[in-house]
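In this supplementary section we document a worked example of the pipeline. Step one takes a protein sequence of length 167 as its only input; no multiple sequence alignment statistics are reported here. Step two produces a three-dimensional model, which step three serialises into structure tokens for compact storage. The input and output of this example are shown verbatim.
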Amino acid sequence: MKFKSNTYGSCNVNQIVNLIVNKIEESNTDWVLAIGTDSQNKRNTTKFCEVILLHEVGKGGIFFYRTHFEDKIDVLQNRMLEEARYSIELAKEVIEALDSQYFEREFDFTEHNIKLEIHCDLGVNGKSKVAVKSAIGWIAAEFGGLVTTRIKPDSPAASHIADIHTK
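The serialised model returned by step three reads:
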């Protein structure tokens, strides 16, 4: 499935990572590369939206998104963990594409000021609080210290951008 961008049109993950690397190489600044997923239940389906967000701290950013439908997931905690699963899988794909840039262009993302984050549309105050510990633990187990998990209100890739595209 391809991602969409208002600026760049339709792109696959490798094209997105190439655009990201170009932006990072143009500016020696602080960056956040965030992956986030949100979902909404519709009649008989659940609509998911996955987002790749590159934020140049203090200046703005670019994002890419894709949506798809699955059979309706009625149990909220299960749906929240499915969102986490999609984000984990996408983050692995993005990191793999970044790693391939090392061999193609000698671009080592660990030498740049880039924070890798997974944004979850979860909070400690709402109904989604039942899934917070599980999602954070799962992400930490998958990535260790390489990726930071963010939840509401500090998770714009999931709680703002993806949220808009699931409605």
